[in-house]
Amino acid sequence: MRFVGNALWFIFAGLWLGLGWALAGLLWCITIIGIPWGVQCFKFAKLLFRPFGKDVRFGGGLGSLILNIIWLCVSGLPLCVEAVLIGCILCITIVGIPFGKQCFKYAKLALMPFGADIVKT
Q1: Phi and psi angles of residue 6, each rounded to the nearest 5 degrees, phi first
Q2: Which of 7, 20, 37, 41 has CA atoms 20 to 30 A from the CA of 78?
Q3: pLDDT at 37
Q4: Residue 121, helix vs strand vs coil
């Protein structure tokens, strides 16, 4: 069942969301200072290509807060808007509502990626 869910997700939303995160990661890695943000982007791009069977847990401390503030100012808002738009489009149909809900979950991730961990379910 995970294979079917991941295949449908990849076709309808995962490809575009994952490519957005990968592009952000490439742009961050151009500078040496941005490498921690780039690594985080690649980690979540991998998640967005195959999300079924995995969950995101949020946490973190002061360091994560500072990194999230910098992230939000530079890359977080465009990735969040992308996820929300794709989620709204998917929620137009009844079949797409579960995928749209996943997009909204990843919109939250786009706002606060530091301190978030991927766990298998």
Answers
A1: -65, -40
A2: 7
A3: 87
A4: coil
- Rg over alpha carbons for the chain, rounded to the nearest Å, is 14
Q: Residue 98's Cα: distance from chain center in Å?
A: 16
> Residue 119 has which token pair?
């766990």
pLDDT of the residue at 26: 94
* CA neighbor of 76 nearest in space, from 37, 50, 117, 46: 37
- pTM assigned to the model: 0.84
Residue 6: the pLDDT is 86
CB atoms within 10 A of CB 30: 10
Q: Are 17 and 113 in contact (CB under 8 A)?
A: no
The pair of three-digit structure tokens given for residue 27, joined into one six-digit string: 């742009």
- Between 1 and 22, the more confident residue is 22
Q: Is the dihedral of CA 93, 50, 15, 109 positive or negative?
A: positive
**Bridge partner list, 120:** 54
Mean residue pLDDT of the chain comes to 89
